[in-house]
Design a protein that fits this description.
Helix content is 25%, strand content 21%. The chain has 3 helices and 9 strands; from the N terminus they run αββββββββαβα.
């Protein structure tokens, strides 16, 4: 009786701690993200694995190579760095690399881009490549709020991130760890009672 009650209390916390992690490599084989277009649900986490100097910077569909003022930006990342972005909702998120020439060469990424219509990933990619003669990256204003929450970690160093947001890995792991500890404690208590 105690076991079933305790288990019913703990299971929602364990289930809530799971998030889908999508791994994206940045820079393998040239200035590209792989994959370059994904569908994600709110709460999913996109982990950008950098292989050299690249960025993951929020842009708009209309200005694919210009950072959104106030949007997320990984900053220039080195080989072995992971930049994580938690998806807040299912609105499209447009991202490009701000290393000179990368966006113009097609290093763009989208989350939840429409499959048809005027704002598809293919049209976003074409718009980025069309900016090859215009490399202005001073920032564009955005009337929309960010659809993602960033965090950064380094896989080759224990140095803490300068990013002020908490790491999603720490949060997810801590949530699962607490739920697991509570579940083990509850299970132990249920069998000992």
């Amino acid at each position: 009786m105690h076991f079933a009650s305790a288990l019913a209390t703990i299971l929602p916390f364990v289930a809530a701690s799971y998030a889908v992690h999508v791994n994206v490599t940045a820079g393998v084989g040239g200035p590209v993200y792989n994959p370059s277009n994904i569908t994600a649900a709110a709460g999913d986490v996109i982990d950008f694995h950098f292989t050299g100097p690249q960025t993951a910077t929020q842009v708009t569909f209309a200005a694919p190579c210009t950072p959104v003022v106030g949007g997320f930006n990984s900053g220039t990342e080195a080989n072995g760095t992971v930049y994580s972005l938690t998806v807040n909702d299912t609105k499209p998120i447009w991202i490009s690399c701000q290393i000179p020439g990368h966006c113009q060469a097609g290093m763009v990424f989208s989350v939840n881009a429409p499959l048809t219509g005027n704002m598809t990933y293919a049209k976003f990619l074409a718009a980025a490549k069309a900016t090859a003669s215009n490399t202005t990256t001073t920032g564009s204003p955005s009337s929309a709020t960010s659809s993602g929450s960033p965090s950064k970690s380094t896989t080759t160093s224990s140095k803490s991130s300068a990013n002020t947001q908490a790491s999603v890995f720490t949060f997810t792991t801590a949530s699962f760890g607490i739920a697991s500890t509570l579940l083990v404690t509850v299970l132990s208590s249920a069998f000992l009672s």
